[in-house]
Design brief:
By secondary structure, the chain is an all-alpha fold. The chain folds into three domains: about 80 residues, no CATH class; about 45 residues, no CATH class; about 150 residues, no CATH class. It has 13 helices and two strands, in the order αβαβααααααααααα. The radius of gyration is 27 Å and the shape is elongated.
Length: about 280
């Protein structure tokens, strides 16, 4: 059975004359709902908008994209304000009160996610759903991962609270790096750091990357690449000492730290400040 329309469930309809009214705060505007005909909707509100002092009116067009070129309702749209809420964007803001970005991405990934689905997510128990969210003081997404990469101070609490599976899921969803479930926290940090710094380095090259960093996978999508950049920049800006240590470790691990012969065309597109003149530069802007 289909759920009643949003307004029918969340706002009580009151008898208001030519159209029903709803109560929003201290206002009781008329409500006109699109039911398959734009001309029918315009005709239904004609007597209201034709008055010398029109009363407040809401035109509700569920699931209809605004026609910005030839809308039958353009005159009415210009006379008022168009509110075009994005369900997933609103859902993200609300769900962030209880879930991490990794959890939310999985919840909102299906294209058919509905308002009722989001309400159901919020109704899943009374406890705080994300252990990571609590341990990192409410930090989310890339900010949380940046703090975790920069320090192992919370590793004990992560293990005690059995939060490693949630952390691995966050890494996969936000960065596109799929770590095995049996990864230790130290190994997960090492591999994630290598993945972040090598991919930022690779993105800064003006030519094909060297073959010996080919074992580090590319990010699967542009949004993952942007988040990788955000984390690398966050490490440099907020945790510069930790960043230098992490970059040195990745240079050693990837064989970038010693004197290496390289083609003249292999030059990063942004300046490097590597401390070793003979090494292949990790970006440290």
């Amino acid at each position: 059975m289909n759920s009643p329309p949003f307004f029918d469930r969340e706002l009580e309809l009151l008898d208001g004359g030519p159209l029903p009214r709803v109560t929003i705060g201290t206002s009781s505007p008329f409500l006109a709902r699109y039911e398959g005909s734009f001309f029918g909707l315009r005709g239904a509100v004609e007597s209201i908008v034709a008055a010398d002092q029109p009363e407040p009116l809401i035109l509700y067009l569920p699931g209809i994209a605004k026609d910005r070129q030839g809308s039958v309702l353009m005159e009415l749209e210009r006379a008022g304000t168009c509110y075009e809420p994005q369900l997933k964007r609103l859902g993200l803001n609300v769900l962030r009160q209880r879930f991490t970005d990794g959890q939310i991405d999985e919840m909102l990934r299906p294209s058919a996610v509905t308002y009722d689905d989001i309400v159901a997510f919020l109704g899943q128990g009374g406890q705080v759903a994300s252990v990571l969210h609590t341990l990192f003081g409410g930090a989310q997404g890339e900010v949380l991962l940046t703090e975790w990469l920069a320090s192992d101070a919370k590793d004990g609490a992560l293990l005690e609270k059995d939060a490693l599976p949630e952390l691995l899921k966050l890494i996969k969803v936000r960065l596109g790096l799929d770590l095995t479930a049996d990864s230790s926290l130290s190994k997960a940090r090492e591999r994630t750091c290598r993945y972040v710094l090598v991919n930022e380095f690779r993105a800064d090259l003006s030519c094909a990357p060297p073959k010996f960093i080919g074992m580090v996978p590319d990010p699967p999508g542009q949004e993952h690449a942007e988040r990788i950049r955000d984390i690398a920049e966050g490490l440099r800006r907020r945790f510069p000492d930790a960043y230098i240590g992490l970059a040195d470790s990745v240079e050693q691990d990837q064989g970038l730290a010693g004197p290496v012969s390289r083609p003249q065309t292999w030059v990063p597109s942004t300046p490097s400040v590597s401390r070793r003149s003979g090494s292949l530069p990790m970006p440290r802007r």
